C-alpha cells in the first residue's frame, strides 16, 4: 500500500544529515533551500566529542558557503576553530539557510528516482513519511568500534577517551600502559591526551603516515596537535629513565601482528618497517619501557606484550559510515571501507540517490562538494549501461 507524506508535499530534495556535508549541500547546491527538507536527529558535526579541542584545519578550509565574505566563527585572530565553535557554526548555517529542518531519524528509503518515500522516526516515537524527487545522503560517520574480541578485553573507541577527558575522568588510563591502535591524527591526538596521566603510551599503526608538510605532501597526514606526540616520542628516546625526568614514555611502532588472548595484548614489529624518525627511536633497547623479545635469529624482529588488566587499549582506526537501513541503501555500491561510491557529482549507483561527505569517503569539508550542481561530468563505471550517454548534463 502506498504511503503518503504527512504534508502531501513531494520535496525536490531531501538531505539526510545535519552536519557540515548537509550544510555544504544546502548552501552551495543548485536546488533552492526553500525546496529542500533537511532531516537529522542532531544538527552539528560528528566531531562534537572533541569539545574545546582545536581542529586540524584552518578556518578558511572550513567555510560552508561559497558566498560568505567572512568566516563567522567568533574567532577573530585565530587560525583554527575549536570543535565546539565549528559545531555551533554548522548548526547556525543550516538553521539560517532557508531550508526546512526536521529533527528526526530516517529508518528507510524506498522507491525510485522522482518517487522516493522516506520512513521517518520522530522524537516522540511516531513514524511518519516524506516524499522526495531526489535524496542526498550526508549522514557522516562514527568512530570505528573495536572488534568483538578487543571490546570484550575492554578496548574502547577513541571518542570515549575525549568524552571522559572533557569531564576530567582519567581513571581508564591513569598509571596504566596505554596502547593506541591506529595510524592517523586520531591516534596521535589520543596519545598526547592520555600521556600526562599514563605510565607509558605506545601508538601501534599499520603504516607510518608522517608529518605534513615536512615528511608528506598529503595534507591529511599528521598535523598539529599530532606534532606534540611526535615530540614526545623523540624526547622519550633521549630522556626516558633519566633522574628527574617526569614526561611519560611515548613510542610509535609500525606493527606486524597484533593480537589479544589469554589475558594479554601482544604485538610484533620489525626494524625494517620502523626505519622512520619515530619508529627508529621506539625499537627495543631505546628506552626502559621497550621490553621486546627477539623472535628471530637476526635480531630484526621483536615481540612485546602487556597484561590486559594493567593496560588500556584505545581503538583509533578511523571511522565508518552512518547510513539509514533498508534494501535500497544496502544496494548502493561501496568501497572496501564501506563508504558509498560516487562520481564527481555525488551520484551513486542508484539513480536519484546522491551522497557526499564522510559517508562517501570524503575526508574534510574542503573536499566536500555539493551534489546536483549543473555541469557536464563523466559517469563512472558502475553507472554505465543505463542508456545514459557519457557526459550527460546533470539537471538541477
According to CATH, the homologous superfamily of the largest domain is FAD/NAD(P)-binding domain
Q: What is the percentage of strand-forming residues?
A: 25-35%
User: What does the radius of gyration come to?
Assistant: 24 Å
CATH architecture of the largest domain: 3-Layer(bba) Sandwich
Shape: elongated
Helices and strands, in order, run as EHEHEEEEHEHEHEHEEHEEEEHE
The overall pLDDT average reads 87
Largest sheet: 8 strands, mixed
Structural class: alpha/beta
| Name of the CATH first level of the largest domain | Alpha Beta
| Integer count of domains | 2
Describe the structure.
The protein has about 400 residues and is α/β, with parallel strands linked by helices. The chain has 2 domains: about 10-140 and about 320-385, FAD/NAD(P)-binding domain, CATH 3.50.50; about 145-315, FAD/NAD(P)-binding domain. Helix content is about 15%, strand content about 25%. The chain has 8 helices and 16 strands. The chain has helices at about 20-30, 85-95, 150, 160-165, 185-195, 225-240, 280, 325-330; strands spanning about 10-15, 35-40, 100-110, 115-120, 125-135, 140-145, 155, 175-180, 200-205, 250-260, 265-270, 295, 300-305, 310-315, 320, 355. The strands form 3 sheets. An 8-stranded mixed β-sheet has the order 7-14-8-9-10-11-13-12. A 5-stranded mixed beta barrel has the order 1-2-3-4-5. A two-stranded antiparallel sheet has the order 6-15. Helix 2 links the parallel strand 2 (about 35-40) and strand 3 (about 100-110). The radius of gyration is 24 Å and the shape is elongated. It starts with 9 loop residues before the first strand and ends in a 41-residue tail after the last strand. Residues about 375-395 have low confidence and may be disordered.
Amino acid at each position: 500500500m502506498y504511503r503518503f507524506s504527512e504534508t502531501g508535499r513531494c520535496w525536490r530534495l531531501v538531505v539526510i544529515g545535519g552536519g557540515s556535508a548537509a550544510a555544504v549541500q544546502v548552501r552551495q547546491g543548485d536546488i533552492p533551500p526553500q525546496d529542500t527538507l533537511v532531516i537529522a536527529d542532531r544538527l552539528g558535526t560528528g566531531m562534537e566529542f572533541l569539545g574545546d579541542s582545536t581542529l586540524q584545519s584552518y578556518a578558511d578550509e572550513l567555510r560552508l558557503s561559497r558566498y560568505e565574505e567572512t568566516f563567522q566563527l567568533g574567532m577573530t585572530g585565530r587560525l583554527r576553530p575549536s570543535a565546539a565553535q565549528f559545531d555551533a557554526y554548522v548548526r547556525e548555517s543550516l538553521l539560517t539557510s532557508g531550508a526546512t529542518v526536521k529533527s528526526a531519524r530516517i529508518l528507510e528509503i524506498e522507491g525510485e528516482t522522482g518517487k522516493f518515500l522516506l520512513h521517518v522516526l520522530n522524537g516522540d516515537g511516531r513514524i511518519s513519511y516524506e516524499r522526495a524527487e531526489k535524496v542526498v545522503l550526508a549522514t557522516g560517520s562514527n568512530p570505528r568500534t573495536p572488534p568483538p574480541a578487543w571490546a570484550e578485553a575492554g578496548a574502547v573507541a577513541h571518542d570515549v577517551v575525549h568524552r571522559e577527558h572533557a569531564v576530567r575522568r582519567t581513571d581508564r588510563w591513569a598509571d596504566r600502559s596505554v596502547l593506541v591502535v591506529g595510524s592517523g591524527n586520531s591516534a596521535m591526538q589520543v596519545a598526547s591526551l592520555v600521556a600526562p596521566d599514563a605510565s607509558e603510551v605506545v601508538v601501534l599503526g599499520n603504516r607510518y603516515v608522517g608529518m605534513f608538510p615536512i615528511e608528506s605532501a598529503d595534507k591529511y597526514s599528521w598535523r598539529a596537535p599530532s606534532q606534540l606526540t611526535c615530540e614526545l616520542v623523540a624526547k622519550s628516546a633521549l630522556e626516558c629513565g633519566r633522574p628527574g625526568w617526569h614526561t611519560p614514555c611515548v613510542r610509535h611502532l609500525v606493527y606486524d601482528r597484533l593480537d589479544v588472548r589469554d589475558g594479554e595484548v601482544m604485538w610484533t614489529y620489525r626494524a625494517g618497517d620502523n626505519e622512520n624518525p619515530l619508529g627508529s627511536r621506539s625499537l627495543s633497547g631505546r628506552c626502559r619501557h621497550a621490553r621486546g623479545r627477539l623472535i628471530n635469529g637476526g635480531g630484526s624482529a621483536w615481540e612485546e606484550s602487556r597484561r590486559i588488566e594493567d593496560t588500556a587499549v584505545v581503538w583509533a582506526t578511523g571511522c565508518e559510515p552512518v547510513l539509514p537501513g533498508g534494501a535500497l541503501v544496502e544496494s548502493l555500491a561501496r568501497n572496501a571501507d564501506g563508504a558509498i561510491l560516487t562520481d564527481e557529482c555525488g551520484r551513486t549507483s542508484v539513480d536519484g540517490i546522491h551522497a557526499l561527505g564522510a559517508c562517501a569517503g570524503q575526508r574534510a569539508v574542503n573536499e566536500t562538494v555539493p551534489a546536483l550542481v549543473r555541469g557536464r561530468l563523466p559517469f563512472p563505471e558502475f553507472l554505465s549501461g543505463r542508456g545514459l550517454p557519457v557526459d550527460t548534463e546533470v539537471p538541477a
